[in-house]
């Protein structure tokens, strides 16, 4: 099985995602609630509307990325826990810097969906053990947002991990990807012209045909 096939086999498409399918770490749950609260109806929230106080307890695990090219995103804000995993300041670096080389194609495909569909995403992650590097496991959440022009070119994210990083930097592999489609109500309802035409026809005034009296000659020649 090739590398691309291995990544494709890990991707789980969920058209009817339920939160109880998998417990969500507290920091990610807080980020999701803040993102949901900022939505106006079913529209995506604007990045400018996100205030740090809304996600205070999750700030260390949070990040914001912006799309810079198809399948590529740059970290504009990166919480302290992300820096602790890499041993450096990550602001301005590509999101792919957090991932192992063989996970970056799957990440690029996912970023295209997050920004273009758009959709939210949940990833389960792992870092293999090695000399001075204990095994790590983690979870990531990506939630699309709009930029100043109203386009879905930003995303609010969160990363939590369990274990001791050990020797730095540590990069993560992707175990599973869950694409979380936005509610169907996000799309405007299709017009129903048939019903309108029926109503119009029912109220249209149609004059009755006039009666005509036809006289017949009863006498025979």
List the secondary-structure elements in sequence, H or E: HEHEEHHEEEEH
Query: Which percent band covers the strand fraction?
Result: 15-25%
Radius of gyration: 29 Å
Q: How many independent structural domains? A: 1
Q: How many H/I helices? A: 5
CATH superfamily: PAS domain
Biggest sheet character? 7 strands, mixed
Helix % is 10-25%
- Uncertain runs: 1-22, 185-207
Strand order of the largest sheet: 1-7-4-5-6-2-3
CATH top-level class: Alpha Beta
Oligomer: single chain
Kindly summarize this structure in a few lines.
By secondary structure, this protein is α+β, with helices and mostly antiparallel strands. 24% of the residues lie in helices and 25% in strands.
Describe, in plain words, how this protein is organized in 3D.
The protein is α+β, with helices and mostly antiparallel strands and 221 residues long. The protein has a single domain, classed as PAS domain (Beta-Lactamase, 2-Layer Sandwich), CATH 3.30.450.20. Helix content is 24%, strand content 25%. It contains 5 helices and 7 strands. It has helices at residues 3-10, 26-38, 80-86, 104-116, 193-203; strands at 11-13, 62-69, 72-78, 119-127, 136-145, 154-162, 173-181. It has a 7-stranded mixed β-sheet. Strand 5 (136-145) and strand 6 form a beta hairpin. The longest helix has 13 residues, at 26-38. It is globular and about 50 Å long.
